[in-house]
Amino acid sequence: MAIHRRDFLSNSALLAASTAFLGSGSQLLADHHESHGEGGKSIKPLFEISLAEWSLHTALRANEFTNLDFPRITKEEFSISAVEYVNQFFKDKAKDADYLKELDTRCKDNGVKSVLIMVDGEGNLGEPAENKRRAAVENHFKWVEAAKTLGCHSIRVNARSQGSFTDQLNLAADGLRQLCEFADDHEINVIVENHGGLSSNGAWLAAVMELTDHPRVGTLPDFGNFWITRPNAKKNITGEQYDRYKGVAQLMPYAKGVSAKSHDFDNKGNETATEYNRMLGLVTGWGYDGYIGIEYEGKKLGEFEGIKATKKLLERVRDDLTGHHHH
């Protein structure tokens, strides 16, 4: 469900009023989540789990399998029924009708839903020069059409820009609005991830959403990715990191997708950088009940093991939160 702008201020005030509320999985907003069947069993889970293709980037780059195999592997190896594509793994296929039809068939054969396409390398929607900005917008059109063909609800784009905070705000909103106007004809959303630079500043990206002011625009909050500038020991740069809980809280009112970033796990199976209980409490507290995409980027566990560990953690926390919601 989308949180409407008119509700945003009251919700923000509510969040600000109580940090305990933030940590608790927000019982106040949670009660409407689930309809009950007989015997009080939940019909609809608190959220669904999808697999982001980037979790398998090492195997894909090594040609162990291809993007066409991604739906089958998602189902067979992980028992996950929804996929989030990364365009670089089929970058010359956006307009290839036969290829997209085959990919869609593979999804249907495996009972897998296509959720979104993460689009990189097509130019920055916040380019300062107007002609370059327009070119970037138009470069994304083919991915909007491909997303529609595959039955996705969104494409994920980058809002990178240059200049002052305000300049970048205006430029990104302009590029996004232009793309949304095209995407609206195809019933596809254009969503922005916190993905470095000012896009990792929750307040900036929320302001971009407000300024874009289009029903098709939204966010894809990622639990990690909050480095505004990365640390660099050689250059003696400590780096600037935005608080991930604050950032996700600021992005959730506009969320049309969520990425569960994971790197490492402790011996209890908890992710070491993100408190999943707290983060998922925050996500579901906003009334979000769509797909949460597993984006494993760790080095210690192999890709398959890392995906499985993330799935297990998401399921465990979902069970905990579902229990909370029904005291």
TrEMBL record:
Presence of the UniProt keyword DNA damage in the record: no
Keywords, ordered alphabetically: Isomerase
The Xylose isomerase-like TIM barrel domain, residue ranges: 82-313
Keyword Phosphoprotein on entry: no
Single annotated GO MF: isomerase activity
InterPro entries from the UniProt entry: IolE/XylAMocC-like (IPR050312), TAT_signal (IPR006311), Xyl_isomerase-like_sf (IPR036237), Xyl_isomerase-like_TIM-brl (IPR013022)
Pfam family, one: AP_endonuc_2
SUPFAM superfamilies on file: Xylose isomerase-like (SSF51658)
Protein name, as recorded: Xylose isomerase-like TIM barrel
